[in-house]
Amino acid sequence: MTRTTPPRPLDVAAVFPELGAHTTTATRLHPRPGAPAVTDSSIGGPLLWPAGEPWPVCDADDHDDPVPLPTPMIPVAQVYRHDAPDFAGPPGTDVLQVLWCPLDHLDEGYNPLVRVFWRRAADVTRVLAEPPSPAEVHEEYVPAPCVVHPERVREYDYIGSLPGDLAARVRERFGSRYQYDLSLAPGWKLGGFANWSLTDPLPMDCEACGAPMTLLFTAASSEGPASWQPVEDAPVTPTGVVIGRGYSLYVFGCPASFEHPVATAMQ
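Above: the chain's sequence. Below: its structure in token form.
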């Protein structure tokens, strides 16, 4: 079944044409309970992981509670290029894989430690049968296996990231409605913009080269306010993932090199 975001209550770009310079698309993933295979895009499903490639582990020493090191990471998401118009990986790759350490990390703002992998599906001739499991997890960081129903939507940048005069006029015209109903799609997604609902926009600069980073992937606690719920569904939280007190974890990538480490922010 497809999932369809209801039309926005109004077209903000028709009211403020200048927003056309501050827009992009995102692919909402709309995860729903299922039994995904390694050949499927999924949240919390099995990964197309080569049998001969070491499984990633977390050896950080900033866990909230002392735990044995190293801790095997767990699958969070797998997205195939053919399922996501906003897939933006290295040339020749067609699979994005997101894993994280399912524990709170002090250096990550009491969030999971995220790693991202890109690969070419055709290169995987033997799939790892059974990845290792961590001895200890934060249950709300373990996503239930879900299939996805990708849908492309248009977004407009967070109001605090708009030029000052435009931001002031948008705020005067729409108030908080711009942020919550008119501009930023909530939920699990690829691409788009971050919703800086807890803080002012943070400088997300690449630690390797200093380049401003762009939003790559979002893990979310819900699909957001009622106006964003797909017309085919009642409100759902199928993955069981809870970030903080019901927020989202944004994963940013460096536009200069896919080999540079990602960065995260909870909002």
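The chain is about 10% helix and 25% strand.
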